[in-house]
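Morning. Coffee machine broken again, so started the prediction first thing and wrote up yesterday's gels while waiting. Chain of 203 residues, entered below exactly as on the submission form.
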Amino acid sequence: GCSCDPGWFGFDCSNRDCPRGDDPLTKDQVVEVQALNCRATFGQFALRYKNRWTAPIAYDVDGPQLRAAILEAFVPGSAGFGLIADLDVGFSEEGKTSACSGKGDYNVTLTFTQDFGDVPMFQVDATGLVHTLDPGAGAALTVYEQQKGTKENDFCSRRGHCDHSTGTCTCNEGFSMSDGHGNLGSRSDCGYEYTPTIACPGD
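Came back before lunch.
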């Protein structure tokens, strides 16, 4: 069979994906959070998501720079074909700003804010990292799942009809575009529940 480009499927790749989202009628669900732990004092590393690698990333990259490096490789419109819609980068300890440290005593948190469900894990390439203060132990880079994503990731958020010829959702009555978290937004995924106006005030 055919190997379809992202966003297309079917035996001849003629069907288009519709926007996916979280069902607004299911509650108490969370997004995926992965944690990166790096013990190094020099060098660079790379991250892989699905089938694509980032460019080399400096060991002392800060949060905004790391986010930019990841999104440059994976966001919609890039060569990554939209493998990741968006990501927040933080640190497990307040005041930390570098991805790697000599002790490796804190984590970088990678929060998938717009990609739902139990998403694939990042993979790492640490061959370019060095620990100059402890060459015997060497550098180390690991990633683990801190929080498993439990939000749905379904066509039209289960609250609309997907037209696979156009890749668009027709939302059921009472549902509209969302921000991915139950509020009104720009995602055409039918993930926002509103109360239809039956009559104008004063009628």
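The radius of gyration is 20 Å. Going to sketch it on the whiteboard this afternoon.
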